[in-house]
Amino acid sequence: METFIRAYSWVDIRFLLQGLWVTIYVSLISIALSFVVGLILGLIRYTKIKYVSAIVGFIIDIIRNLPLLLIIFFTYFGLPQLGIVTNPTTASIAALVIFEGAMLAEIVRSGIGSVDPGQMEGARSNGMSYGQAMYHVVMPQALNHMIPALLAQFVSLVKDTSLATIIVLPELLYNAQIIYSQNTTYLIPMYVIIAIMYFVVCFCLSTIANYLQKKYN
C-alpha cells in the first residue's frame, strides 16, 4: 500500500494526466477524421461506381490486413523520405485515420446495406434525388444500425493510441513507462491507474454512443 501512495504523488499524477490529455486529443481528432474518411469510402463501396468502387475496395482490403504498427512506422519514418515532415502527434493521427478509416468504411457499407432497399425506392418515387434520399432517408436508419459497431471501433481506436509509444508520442502509456522506469516498484501501481483511466475514457465514449442511439431511435 505504501508503494501505491508514493507512486500516486501529485507530480506523477499530473504527468499521467498530461499523457491522458494527449491520448484524448489524438483519439478525438482521429475519430472525427476517420469517420469522415470511412463514410466517404463506405458510400463509394456501396454505390458500386464502375472501376472506382473496385479500386477503393482493393485498397481498403490491403490496409485492413496490415498491422497498425506498420502503418505508424510508415507515417513517421516513411513519409519524411517522401518529403513530408511529420512529428509523433501528426504521424499517429495520420496512421490511425488511415487504418480506422478503412475499418469504418466496411461498417458504413454494411450499415447502408442493412437498410431495406424499399426505403430508397420509396424516397425516389416521391421525387427525391439519389443524394437527397441517401441523406434524409437511408443514412439516418443506417447510422442507427451502425452505432454498436462504430462504438466498438472507436473504443479500439482509443486503445490503439498506446501503440504510438513506439514513436515516442507522449501519451498515457508512454508517460507511465517513464515513471516506472525510474522506480521499478511503481510498475503495478502505474498499470492499475492507467487501466482505470482507459476504462473511464472508454466508458464515457460508450455512454455518449448509447445516448445517440436512443436519440436516433
Automatic annotation (TrEMBL):
Domain ABC transmembrane type-1: 20-209
CDD domains: TM_PBP2
A GO-annotated cellular component: ATP-binding cassette (ABC) transporter complex
Keyword Transport: yes
Location of the protein in the cell: Cell membrane
Signal peptide start-end: none
TM annotation in the entry: 20-44, 51-79, 91-112, 133-155, 190-212
Membrane-related topology note: Multi-pass membrane protein
Record bears the keyword Cell membrane: yes
GO molecular function terms attached to this record: transmembrane transporter activity
Main location, first listed in the record: membrane
Keywords: Amino-acid transport, Cell membrane, Membrane, Transmembrane, Transmembrane helix, Transport
InterPro entries registered for this protein in UniProt: AA_ABC_transptr_permease_3TM (IPR010065), ArtM/GltK/GlnP/TcyL/YhdX-like (IPR043429), MetI-like (IPR000515), MetI-like_sf (IPR035906)
Gene Ontology terms: biological process: amino acid transport
Similarity comment text for this entry: Belongs to the binding-protein-dependent transport system permease family.
Protein name, as recorded: Glutamine ABC superfamily ATP binding cassette transporter, permease protein
Source organism of this protein record: Lactobacillus helveticus CIRM-BIA 951
High-level lineage: Bacteria, Bacillati, Bacillota, Bacilli, Lactobacillales
